[in-house]
Amino acid sequence: MVCCREINAYIKYYEECPNVFNNKRKLLMENIVKPTIARNDIFFDEETYYNCIKYCEKWYYKLFLYEKFIYAFVFMYKNDIPIFRTFVIIEGRGNGKDGFIMPLLNFLQTEYYGVKNYNIDIVATSEEQSQNSYNVVYNTLDSNKLRFKNFFYYNKEECINKKTKSIMRYNTANAKTKDGKQDGAILYNEYHAYEDYEQIKVFQSGLGKIKHGRIFIISTNGYVRGGPLDELLDVCNGVLNGESNELRYFPFICEIDNEEEADTPEMWNKANPSLEYMPELKDAIMMDYLEMQKFPSKRPEFMTKRMNFPQRNEEETITSWEKILKSSYSDIKRKIVRDTPDLKGKSAIVGIDFASLNDFACAGFLFKVKEEYIWRSKTWICAKSKFFKDIKFPFDNKGQQGFEDFEVVHTETIDGREIVSWIISEMSKYNVKKIVLDTYRYQLLKQIFIEKGITVESKETPYGLVRMIRYPASIAAIVAPRIEAAFAEEKVNIGDSAMMRWSINNTCVKNKKDGNKSYEKIEPKLRKNDAFMAFVAAMSVQELLEEQIIYV
């Protein structure tokens, strides 16, 4: 068994004051902490642990009990391999994440830890953020020059321990220049800001060359949905609920458990474990809370950053991220994809949308089965677009589960004939009632449809298959309430489509001065929503899908 008075003290605190522990920390204690310390095959390096506490508190700050508790698990090994490789620390803003993690990382450079060349990279999406973390160490060394001059070389970019040759440095956002690193530890700061894995994977590839490799992730929650943080939290949730922990995660996740707790100050400790030690933090959160009461538009920021309970302004979102996930999965935690009936021969509406054929384009088929709207689509992405390299979607995952419904084309523009050919090919499986697109798209694709033998709706051919939406701006006013209700009632089935989830989440609803609604992109250049807008086009004539009862 592992014996550590700081761990025992924190367990006692948990058992005596369970109300200040959110559900995920309770699961941590029951499913990870207690089973770990009960094992007989673990070596706890008690001497190095207490040297770390002494070093950090002498040169940096007095550590809180929960911080000492987490530190202890850094120094547990089996066969000289850390029991936990990845430490995930999610806390509300203002809890002192840099002040918690940087003293520990600085200690790992020293001879008291004793691993040579234990290099440490600090990584963030902005140079300023990674430099701010590094400055915790720089300022300490610089304030104690006489004491540290014999132990460290340091400047404003890196510090090197003279005995172990361990280098700590902060990094810019240009991940492409970081191949070949040999790290002992990596710190990812404000993980919520990452929209893809480009920067993450480059640094992580440097682990494994130095013993005791570790990853530290510190963050609040954020506004990027479907990105690395959400995937990380999914893995952590599985581990906390008793799934296999072969990745050796230690998830210390602090958040309120439900929205109502944001209005109960006694519950704020759940998201802010430093609250009881820092009266100034409690005052700051209270001021933010009172301000939120006066300015409701500030509620999403308070909920996301202070309470770690992400929200966006509900008046501007298509639906919540949870509802988006439920449009893909019947069981979100276990990623069980929603059942889909056999659609062969079913009535369908085709929706098409694109802003420009040298950017994104999408076409999809909408079905309605027993009040459920089923949507299956394909998206084309032009790699020659001037914005392509900056778009934060994991195109490299192409072909993996959830990433099978898009294609990256490397020509100067997306070929409209390819879109039409795909539609016609898929049409052979279904009973297509109408193909819907707005004026601009209609003008570009009309002749291709005609050449392929697809009839176009007009005064002369009122039953033509291709219909032009003459007033696209009015469509949202008609369709938005129906779409909102369908998501709310969990009657939308998009399949396991990361592209559709991303597209829905990139779209906001704006209330116009005339009281009508319009759909807009959250960010006009990089947050694409063509796949969702193709769905909107199809939904504009969903009444054509109403099932007819045939009496025999």
Question: Taking strands numbered 1, 2, ... along the chain, how are they ordered across the largest sheet?
Answer: 6-7-8-5-9-10-4-11
- List segments where confidence is low: pLDDT < 50 over at least 5 consecutive residues: 548-552
Q: What is the straight-line distance between the termini?
A: 74 Å
Helical content band = 25-40%
- Report the count of strand segments: 22
Number of helices, where a helix is a run of at least 4 consecutive DSSP H or I residues: 17
Average of per-residue pLDDT values: 89
**Assembly state here?**
single chain
**C-alpha-based Rg, rounded:** 27 Å
Percent of sequence in beta strands: 15-25%
In short:
The strands form five sheets. This protein has an eight-stranded mixed β-sheet with strand order 6-7-8-5-9-10-4-11, sandwiched between helices. Strands 14, 15, 16, 17, 18, 19 and 20 form a seven-stranded mixed β-sheet that branches.
Note down, in words, how this protein is organized.
The protein is an alpha/beta fold. Helix content is 35%, strand content 19%. The protein has 17 helices and 22 strands. It has helices at 5-16, 23-37, 46-59, 65-74, 97-108, 127-143, 145-148, 198-204, 228-240, 279-294, 299-306, 321-326, 416-427, 439-451, 472-488, 498-505, 530-539; strands at 43-44, 76-78, 81-82, 86-90, 120-123, 152-154, 158-161, 167-170, 185-189, 214-219, 249-253, 329-331, 336-337, 347-354, 360-369, 372-382, 406-409, 431-438, 466-469, 492-493, 507-511, 517-521. The strands form five sheets. It has an eight-stranded mixed sheet with strand order 6-7-8-5-9-10-4-11, sandwiched between helices. Strands 14, 15, 16, 17, 18, 19 and 20 form a seven-stranded mixed sheet that branches. It has a three-stranded antiparallel sheet with strand order 1-2-3. A hairpin with a 5-residue loop joins strand 7 (158-161) and strand 8. Helix 1 (5-16) packs across helix 4 and helix 3 packs across helix 5. 40% of the residues are buried. The model is unreliable at 548-552 (pLDDT under 50).
